[in-house]
Amino acid sequence: MTRKIASLFVALTATVALLTGCGASNPITTAEPYSPSDGVRIELSDGVRFENLFFLTAETGSTVRPMGSIVNGSANPAQVTITVADVSATYDVPANEVFSLQDEGGVLDGASLTPGTNAPTTVTTAGSVTRDVPVLDGTIPPYDQFLPQN
Description:
2 domains; 8-stranded mixed β-sheet
């Protein structure tokens, strides 16, 4: 009888170790912040971040519209600059506010981007971050309504 209990205990211990080991070695990816859309999420310093940042243009050489939002979760206003293809735009984002690029961001004249690529982009506030940002062509609704006109 003692041998059966010992065998059962060993089997139970191995099962528990196996099951708990899976959770210990694999990170919980749903707990990580991510951009659930076409753009990218970029964290800057002082509570400032970009959500769903991407660029919209009809074709290479056409006017470019930045899309997404700048979120300022800090208690101070932030001045945020986007630089892509040697063209920059600066935005003033009030404290604890969300700034909509498609509604208030205007266009980037002279930034020649190719749809279907990723454009190296630098975003700056108290610090700067460079990331590849997707460039879309507006063929997907509802982005077509935001496509800038030349």
